[in-house]
């Protein structure tokens, strides 16, 4: 099982490192713009970095959950690739938002689409597994038979 989850584990560790990077950027922005904790307001340049990090952190638990669910129940390979694309999108989002509020939009839409794909893979994988385990129906095999593919 561990060999099968190495891609998911690698994407998870990379995601944690990305979150740490975002947090460090907030620390650097606090120093640069003289915004001492616990304050969360200051110059717009600081607030954009702060919000970019907060937004990325808010979505991280959802990402990790659907990454692993899709990887376990659907496809580890596809889920890992989607995970890498999502992390790339969030990195672009962070840097775009740090520069301007408008700069966050394209990467936000990209990463949201990838997240929805992972949600779809998760749902499909869980439903197919449920049918196979609890209803004793292999939906994919039945579908292949009906279409004359098997």
UniProtKB/TrEMBL annotation:
It comes from the Eukaryota. SUPFAM superfamilies: MAPEG domain-like. Keywords: Leukotriene biosynthesis, Membrane, Nucleus, Transmembrane, Transmembrane helix. Signal peptide: none annotated. One of its GO terms (cellular component) is endoplasmic reticulum membrane. It is found in: Endoplasmic reticulum membrane; Nucleus membrane. One of its GO terms (biological process) is leukotriene biosynthetic process. It is a multi-pass membrane protein. PROSITE patterns: FLAP_GST2_LTC4S (PS01297). The chain crosses the membrane at residues 59-87, 108-135. One of its GO terms (molecular function) is leukotriene-C4 synthase activity. InterPro entries: FLAP/GST2/LTC4S_CS, MAPEG, MAPEG-like_dom_sf, Membr-assoc_MAPEG. Belongs to the MAPEG family. PANTHER family: LEUKOTRIENE C4 SYNTHASE (PTHR10250:SF4), MICROSOMAL GLUTATHIONE S-TRANSFERASE (PTHR10250). This is Leukotriene C4 synthase. It comes from Lates calcarifer (Barramundi). The lineage of its organism: Eukaryota, Metazoa, Chordata, Craniata, Vertebrata.
